[in-house]
Amino acid sequence: MKLSRTVAYALQATLQLAETDSQSPVPCSKLAAKGDMPERFLLQVLRNLVTHGILRSTRGVDGGYTLVRPAEQISLLEIIEAIDGPMDSRLPLETEVDTSFQENLKEALASVTSAMRQQLADIKISQLVTKSSSTPRPGIAPSPHIAATSLNEASVPVRQGS
Asked: Region annotation Disordered: residue ranges (predicted)?
């Protein structure tokens, strides 16, 4: 599974907010600076997360962003689908393959997509905060924040079998 840069920024910002463990709003500029993300682009990402009920936006001098719910109640799936839309297993309409093969392929892809959605729904932001804060990376001093480019390094539990 490949995550878009937009999803990586959304996950990074959400992790940063979960790590603050505070109800005080965090400005976009601070999230962008700590996560090494472009502020103007991050602002669009954060607005999308507000629209989907994951973050709360507070205006004003002391304004910024906070999580709407505890990190234990926000899943990876919610964030990914808030940014990229629902995960699905549709085939291109112009697929020129045998109809029975196409049906079998649709069925197999639907099964894989369902399993992936369930696993992503089971992984909560709080689990990633704990891992990102406590897992030292070779050659890098432990930090409470992970860079957006290092999300690929975050270990995520994967279930084998069914």
From this structure: 131-162
